[in-house]
């Protein structure tokens, strides 16, 4: 937008985009950091194990109408040792962010290195292919999620209708009994509701197994720990990751900004800092990956009530998701797109709740966009007035949009709408990428240049007469 509409040179336009993304991601964080997990009624009981997903439990609300769900929840609170209550969690999965964010950053570092030798037209071709495939997979997931949400909504309506019908039938029965003098006083709507709860067709009798008191106590401690809205130590680790990444980026330079200590790719210090980026990010990922596996094992040992959208980390999952997150980072760094365009669909494929995935992805984007935006403004490449204006506009837009969309999803239960919005954004980016590719090639008489040298300090003449826009300048975030 900065290049095409405001006529900014490529570097200031890239910095302006970073400021815009920083504002949008911060606006999302201001909403998400106060939000709770979609499951607001987590219980401390073992639950019914899921047959399709070992280690997880089936939803207590499955196949039940609103009144039966309410009655079941009240029954849960009334029984037990008198200490029962409902638990929930923040909508941001900080454990996932602490593992996936540094892996994505490490991949992006390698992607930027590879980018230095790729010709600009190849960036755009690769971007079109990757984004097109990602859009296809995300739309496919959207249609499946939408059908599932629609079926669940219809099931809720049908269960509500059945409950209402049973109440009407019970009320008519009580009225006829009162008229015949059989029931006497006390027959009212509450008795009809009780009759529905006792004879409802969807109710299943469950017999709870004996719960070891020590195991229950430890499970409650884990639930209390996970329910903290602002886990100070996890947020501190994210801030530490951000500080380390920002310092190294300032020292090394990048994204069109020179190093603050004046080093270039011809200096040994440049490669030392590149290695430091890998060590910092991958060290973070390795530590928190191990910690996630340890935490899951401790919770599984006490029958922690993992729901069907939770990720149960083990070393096999760490290897699988770290590989694909690293590759996603390479793609993001190589073609210059935002990591959220790749990580968002990846997390949805993992089975993560769409509201959790969007909140967690926004948190990860904030880490990278903020450091680069600050670097651009401090270097003087971007007029601070423009940066502040676009930052505030995007922050306000994201805050209002996120608030409205979350309210709609909570009201309708159609979380698939978030997947659809993501798929649409990726598809539009694909179309824009193809259009700009052909426009740039047309400007240079369809001249296709070759690979570039990795380290060039002086400005060299391009193989083609007119300079093409790079993918980093088109998709700077």
What would your notes on this structure say?
The chain has 477 residues and is mostly helical. 66% of the residues lie in helices and 0% in strands. The protein is built from 14 helices and no strands. The longest helix is centred in the N-terminal third of the chain and has 61 residues, at 120-180. The protein is elongated and about 100 Å long. Residues 183-187, 200-207 and 466-477 have low confidence and may be disordered.
Keywords summarizing the entry:
477 residues, mainly alpha, disordered C terminus
- Report the span from N to C terminus: 12 Å
Mean pLDDT rating: 79
What percentage of the residues does DSSP assign to strands (E)?
Answer: under 5%
The helix fraction, in percent, is: 55-70%
Are there runs of 5+ residues with pLDDT below 50, and where?
Answer: 183-187, 200-207, 466-477
Query: What structural class is derived from the secondary structure elements?
Result: mainly alpha
Largest sheet composition: none
**Count of distinct strands:** 0
Give Rg in angstroms.
27 Å
Shape: elongated
H/E element sequence: HHHHHHHHHHHHHH
Structure annotation, total helices: 14
Please write out the topology.
Layout: H1 10-32, H2 66-78, H3 94-115, H4 120-180, H5 189-199, H6 213-226, H7 232-252, H8 268-300, H9 315-335, H10 340-349, H11 354-379, H12 384-412, H13 416-443, H14 471-474
What's the quick description here?
The protein is built from 14 helices and no strands.
